[in-house]
Design goal:
Blueprint: E1 3-10, E2 17-23, E3 29-34, E4 41-45, E5 51-56, E6 58-59, E7 63-68, E8 73-79
Antiparallel strand pairs: 1-2, 2-8, 3-7, 4-5, 4-8, 6-7
Amino acid sequence: DDVVLTAVKKAEDTDALILRFYEWAGKSGDVQLTVPKGATAATFTNLMEKPEGAALTLVDSSQVTVPVTPYSIETVQFAYPHEQK
């Protein structure tokens, strides 16, 4: 693919999982992301991890298709339920 994953990390302010990637070849298309099962939502965020736009369609609590544009940097946040200890 023409996408490079640059970060997989816990969100700064929540228990969400953050994936950040960029499109380097100047092509539009879709990227399929798969994360550990149990996610309850997936949304685009800005680089400061603030939600932007509508929620993405999450399939089987672990997969989402993300549209990308040429040379874009994308950040997707996956929400997981908070575990009680």
